[in-house]
Design a protein that fits this description.
The protein is an all-alpha fold and about 280 residues long. It has 14 helices and two strands. It has helices spanning about 55-65, 70-80, 85-100, 105-115, 120-135, 140-150, 155-165, 170-185, 190-200, 205-220, 220-235, 240-250, 255-270, 275-285; strands at about 1-5, 35. Helix 8 packs parallel to helix 10 (about 205-220) and helix 12 (about 240-250) packs antiparallel against helix 13. The radius of gyration is 20 Å and the shape is elongated. Keywords: Repeat, TPR repeat.
Length: about 280
Amino acid sequence: MGLKPMAELGTRFGGTVLRKMGMAAFLIVPLAACSPADTVDDLARIDTAQGSQENIGSLTAVIQRTPNDPEAYNIRGAALGRAGRYREALEDFNKAIQLDPRSARAYANRALIYRRMGDNANAVNDYTQAISINPNYDTAYIGRGEIYRLNGRTQEAFQDFERAIQLDTTDPRAYLRRGLLYQASNQHQYAIEDFATAISLSPDQPYGYNGRGVSYLALGDTENAFTDFNTAIRLDENLAESWANQALVYEQQGDKAKAARSYSRALQLDANYEPAREGLARTKA
């Protein structure tokens, strides 16, 4: 998902008071960046092959042998979700919860399926249930926080990401998303710190580099921004946001020809990416 003009806020590690800002002090930043909404989640951590028909068939055989094992349904449900077979995945997680109503993981997995089906209300309910079963379940806080973030419930989102971080999560999503909240409130130094932590936890993913580059650019550090955007492109050359971010640097440097090429590349990858469309119009003009 492309992060377009950003309008959210955050607080700092371990704190509950917003730093030097009120709830209305949102900054609209006209920069392109990538929101890591679906870059890493429980289902995505399953190897692609595990969502194959062959593997799902093997998991079905396991369930036939052990029909009362909730974990068997949990595992097959995750594989079905990885394959995009959401209705069937939902049935498996329902069965896992029926067999083990105290399975926080099953609730969190079902929440992710609800979210992918566009049912955010049930997703939030399931994440909340998972947290009530296991108050130290970082995945549930991160999943619920992202729904809050994308729906403008900024303070609740921040509190969930903060809680996951206080639990010493090693999941980069918590830092990526808290970084986005800092970034949107013009607290770029704190955003840079969070993006750097996310990068250290997942150095082969482009999202932390894109986010950190946007904050560097907002602070006038064009050199570091350009390095981060280029690294993001090297890691995944098929991400439109990275090319649009690179184009922003070229545009700021006055090189409209290179900027236009990068914006064009972004549009080739995502014809609906509005920051690239607007940037190309500016540089072509």
